Amino acid sequence: MITKAQKKSQIKVITGNAAAAIAAKLARPDVVAAYPITPQTEVIEQISQFHANGEMDCELITVEGENSAMNAVMAASLAGGRVFTATSSWGLVFMYDAILAAAGARAPIVMVNVNRETPGIIAVSSGQQDMISTRDAGWIFLIAEDCQEVMDLVLQAYRLAEDYDIQVPVMVHYDGFYLSYLSEGVDVPFQEDVDRFLSVLKTQPERTKLVPGGRLGCGSHGILGGYLELRHKHVSAMERAKAKFEQIDKEYEGIFGRSYGGLVEEYRMDDADVVLVGSGSMCGTIKSVIDEKREEGVKAGLLKMRMYRPFPSEAMIKALKGKKAIGVVDRSLCFGFKGGPIYTELKAFETQLGGSKMISFIDGIANTDITKINVANMIDTTCDLAAGKTVREVTWVSYPEAQKEGGL
C-alpha cells in the first residue's frame, strides 16, 4: 500500500470484521441480509447494532440461513437496491446455488467472505479453500491483506459491482481468525468522502430494475441461443473489470490517499531475482522476511494478488516476466493437481514468463501458521531453483512427511 498526503479521516483500532461492517455502513446499503457463522458473525452483529442504534438506515432481514440471505439480497439488488451480505465456509457452501443464480442474473451484490476451511475436514480453522470452492461461479474476487485493506476493498467493491459497464457481484475475501479477529489501526474515512467516491455511480445510465406495475424478466429458462449471449456478455464484463479496478484504485487514492497498485501489489520487485506470489494475510509476513533477506544480499520480492477473479494474468506476466524463479504460495488445495490453485493457473502462462522457473508451496491450511521461518525456507528453495539446483515442484511446507511419501 502506498499512502500519500494524509486525507481527512479518523484512526480507530478495530477488527477486520468491524472494518467490513463499518465499510458496509458507509456505503449506505438499502438491504442487508446475513446469517451468523464463525468467524464472520461479528460482521452481522456490528451491522445489527448499527441498525438498532439508528446509525444505519437499511432494511435488515433476519434470515434462517445463508441460502435465504443470498436470495434476499439478490432479489433486492435486481429491484434496484444497494445490498450487502457476509458469510464464511459452510455458509458459502450452503448458499452455493443462489451464488450461481446471482452471478447469472448479473446482480451487483457486495459480499464479504471470511476465509475458513470448508466442509470435508470439519475444521473451524483458517484456510482459503472456501474461496477456491466458488472461484468459477461467475463472481469477481478481491483479497485483502490487512484490516485497512478490508475497509478499502469493500468500498471499492461497490464501485466495481455497480458500475454500468460491469454489473457483476463482488466477493471480498479476508483470512478468518487472522484478520477477522485481529485488532489494528484502521483509517476510517468520513461519510461525505465515501458519498463522493460512490457518487460517480449516480451519473451513469440507470441499470435495469424492478418498477411497480412494470415487467422485469430474470434468468434464462427456455432462451436457448440467448443463454450463450448472456454468458459471453458476462465473461466480457469480467474481463473489463480488470481495467476498471485499476481506475477505481487510482480514484480511491485521489480521495482517500491510499493506493494498492490495482490488480496486484508489487513489493521490492524492480530488481528482484526471485519472487514469491501470495495473497491475503500471509503477505505481511512475507514482506518482513523479504526485508531481512535483502539485508543478507538476497534479491527477493513479493507479488501480492488483490484480484483473483478474473485472473489478472496480464498484470502478473508483466510483473514476473524475466525473473529467475517464482515460488507460488497457496493457502488452499487444487484437488486433482499436484500444485496449489493459484500455482496451477499461473502455470498456464509459463511460456509467457520469459524462461522463469516456477514451483508451488502449500502452507497455512487448516489453521497452520505461515511463519517467518517457513517463508525464509520458501525463499531459500526458490533461490536454489534459480541457481539450477533440483528442487521439488510442490512442497507442503508445514507437513514435511509429504516429502517422504513421494509422488509430488
Descriptive notes:
- By secondary structure, this protein is of the alpha/beta class.
- The chain has 2 domains: 2-259, Thiamin diphosphate (ThDP)-binding fold, Pyr/PP domains (Rossmann fold), CATH 3.40.50.970; 264-405, Rossmann fold (3-Layer(aba) Sandwich), CATH 3.40.50.
- 39% of the residues lie in helices and 20% in strands.
- The protein is built from 14 helices and 17 strands.
- The strands form 4 sheets. A 7-stranded mixed beta sheet has the order 4-3-5-6-8-7-14, with helices on both faces. The protein has a 6-stranded mixed beta sheet with strand order 11-13-12-15-16-17, sandwiched between helices.
- Strand 12, helix 10 (282-295) and strand 13 (300-305) form a beta-alpha-beta unit.
- Helix 3 runs parallel beside helix 5 and helix 10 (282-295) packs across helix 13.
- The chain is globular.
- The mean pLDDT is 94.
Question: Any descriptors?
Answer:
408 residues; Rossmann fold; seven-stranded mixed β-sheet; six-stranded mixed β-sheet; 17 strands
Brief write-up:
The protein has 2 domains: 2-259, Thiamin diphosphate (ThDP)-binding fold, Pyr/PP domains (Rossmann fold, 3-Layer(aba) Sandwich), CATH 3.40.50.970; 264-405, Rossmann fold. The radius of gyration is 21 Å and the shape is globular. Helix content is 39%, strand content 20%.
